[in-house]
TrEMBL record:
Belongs to the binding-protein-dependent transport system permease family. FecCD subfamily. It is found in: Cell membrane. One of its GO terms (molecular function) is transmembrane transporter activity. Its main location: membrane. This is Iron chelate uptake ABC transporter family permease subunit. The chain crosses the membrane at residues 21-44, 80-98, 110-128, 134-156, 163-185, 211-232, 253-282, 320-341. GO terms for cellular component: plasma membrane. One of its GO terms (biological process) is siderophore-iron import into cell. It comes from Fredinandcohnia quinoae. Pfam families: FecCD. PANTHER family: FERRIC ENTEROBACTIN TRANSPORT SYSTEM PERMEASE PROTEIN, FERRIC ENTEROBACTIN TRANSPORT SYSTEM PERMEASE PROTEIN FEPG. Gene3D superfamilies: ABC transporter involved in vitamin B12 uptake, BtuC (1.10.3470.10). It is a multi-pass membrane protein. Keywords: Cell membrane, Membrane, Transmembrane, Transmembrane helix, Transport.
Amino acid sequence: MGRIDFGRKYLQLKGPVKLRLDVRSISVTAIFIVAVIALSVFSLTVGTLKLSVSEVFSALFGEMTGFKRTVVIDWRLPRVLAAIVFGAGLAISGSIFQSITRNPLGSPDILGFTSGSYTGALVVMLVIKSMSFTTIATGALIGGFVTAFIIYLFAFCNGTQGFRLIIVGIAISTVLGSVNSMLLLQSQAEVALTAGAWGVGSLNGIDWSHALPAILFICVLLLFAMIMNRPLREMELGKDTAKSHGVHFERTQLLLIIIAVAITASATAVMGPVAFVALAAPQIALRITNTAESLAPSAAVGAFVLLSADVLAQRMIPGMILPVGVLTLSLGGLYLVWLLFHQARSAA
């Protein structure tokens, strides 16, 4: 006997602002937030200097002074917060592009925006020959937005075509990959080695001066993305349906793309291009919640994925801290193979 679906459970909030919240999405988001908090505390305890949970909380609440407080507040906490915020931001960016393209392959990694940010950073390091963090970050931001403009120009020249966006993005990403390789091959070995290491994507050595501006900027962008959640869901129903519901389709789409590109470029400017998170986190959230109604589950999953990968990268090989991008790239490759295989079976 078949199972009868009586519908999903929703929580109605009445007041000045009426909200209709999916109970399952809220539950999944809450579970991942708790997991992120627990993993954050664990991450603050491990390292060359092992600390207890009570020592970590003492340092966080100002009850401890000295070297241990410096380790927690100045060395480990920026890394943990960066992993959480950047992971959430990349997941939101991936969710936006996957909704716009209506394709699970629609992410900044595949579409070429991450490659564009990397190209901008390489131009600063290898052509302008500046290793200043500020100039590298600026180059990454400019590279990401220039790439986005070129892709948008080609992909939407004759109207909205999500699949065309993916094809154009892959083509631009391939071209930028060749440009990046050429820049690295023509530069001095020492500089190329530094630039190549940055290109893997890493949270190693991050501090407040590097992380805080990007964290604050991405948090503001995440707020705007959450506000745009409802128009984004309306756009998934199609252009005509969205317009009939009062959504200015082209303007809303452009604004969402700007938000997603800005998040990706900001995160890439600080830690380098980190793959997999923007691609997989929205799909993991979609499969767990069985709905794409909210960006919040994607953000919570993205924060957990990047923080977990960073903790694992620090402890995988004793005496060595791997760049987090090495781990996410490996997992992302396996996930991409599985996704393509799953799509092929679904289409058969």
